[in-house]
Amino acid sequence: MAEQKRDYYEVLGVQKGATEAEIKKAYRKLAKENHPDLNPGNKEAEARFKEINEAYEVLSDSDKRQRYDQFGFAGVDPSYGAGAGGYGGFEGGFDFGDLGDIFGSFFGGGFGGSTRSRTGPQRGESLRMGLTITFEEAAFGCEKEVTLERVEQCDTCHGSGAAPGTSPETCPNCHGSGQVQQRRQTPMGVFATTGPCPRCGGKGKIVNTPCKDCGGSGQVRRRKTVKVSIPAGIDDGQTISLRGQGNAGRNGGPAGDLLLVISVRPHPLFRREGTSVLCEAPITFTQAVLGGEMEIPTIDGKVKYEIPEGTQTGTTFRLKGKGIPNMNGRGRGDQYVTVYIETPRNLTREQKEALKKFSETLKENNYEERKSFFKKFKK
């Protein structure tokens, strides 16, 4: 009697018209869930794993998939139902292909595939630190010095890790590749796993006489002061990247970067919105009524501004070009000054009498806001 098989599309849980990407994604997920090494002693998982691989071997091949869609199992496996050895054409071992990428992290490498070697150039780690500057320094730019600890190449051995007069030797275990392969016989065939060489730690070389200054690592930790140019217009929370100022690389690899996260100290008068500077300034009752010249603080210093007659509390004036410079170097933003009237305190008797006499001369038409308010209230 012919062996009963499940439809390959059903096995992978995809529709018949599924794309290659959908088939591959489904296969990876199911293969990972049912892999025998992750389910030791589970015969059902082992059987499902075989079934999943068989389905993927057919559906991932455009020619085999076409024949399967047209003729079914007989189109891809002439021995189907004949009781021949093997399972779906898999005899002796498996070609895992993409599966090696999936399980590399579980088995220290892959299934016959390549793993990342530690013998080639390796970029150094990037470092991150904070730098606090003033509001004005952020606006106009500045030069700063930062002190950090970073890993640098050992000057004594020039990064080799070997004492002067000696040199690292090729590892006899991995012959300089930094990797070793192990083959294991399983009920499904032979698994070939690749991982770092245990003798040299994946470096491919062995240092028999270590450098005394770095202990054979080829690197030392040093305290370093770096000059930084802060661009005009930088804002709070932005990051400056200093290329090559991070930890040193290995095996001729480039150094990492230094990432400086900028913090801008709050200003007692100004606050910032984009390239605009905002502030509030008090004016006297007389200035508000009669108008006149007043001094307004800006990030460039004090400037004189003519207050118009009858200025109300909450009026905002614009000082063009007195804001934050654009980081692209094209012009500056504006400053916006919102004024409020300060009510005088500690008046003398004479001042109070004079104010009362002045108030008696005022009419309802002198108070437009008050007049408008009570008109709305009546409505």
Give the distance, in angstroms, between the N- and C-terminal Cα atoms.
96 Å
Strand order of the largest sheet: 10-11-15-14
SS field, number of helical segments = 9
- Total strand count, please? 15
| Overall outline | elongated
Element string (H = helix, E = strand): HHHHHEHEEEEEEEEEEHEEEEHH
Describe the main β-sheet briefly. Answer: 4 strands, mixed
Low-pLDDT residue intervals, each spanning 5 or more residues: 81-116
- The helix fraction, in percent, is 10-25%
Radius of gyration, whole Å: 39 Å
Percentage of residues in strands: 25-35%
Mean pLDDT: 83
Structural class: alpha+beta
Q: Can you characterise this structure?
A:
Helix 2 packs antiparallel against helix 3 (43-59). The strands form 6 sheets. A 4-stranded mixed sheet has the order 10-11-15-14. The longest helix has 17 residues, at 43-59. The termini are far apart. It has 379 residues and is α+β, with helices and mostly antiparallel strands. The protein contains 9 helices and 15 strands.
Short summary of the structure?
The protein has helices at 8-12, 20-34, 43-59, 62-71, 99-107, 135-140, 285-290, 349-360, 368-378, and strands spanning 127-133, 142-153, 169-170, 179-186, 189-196, 205-206, 219-230, 239-242, 258-264, 271-273, 276-283, 292-298, 301-307, 316-319, 335-341.
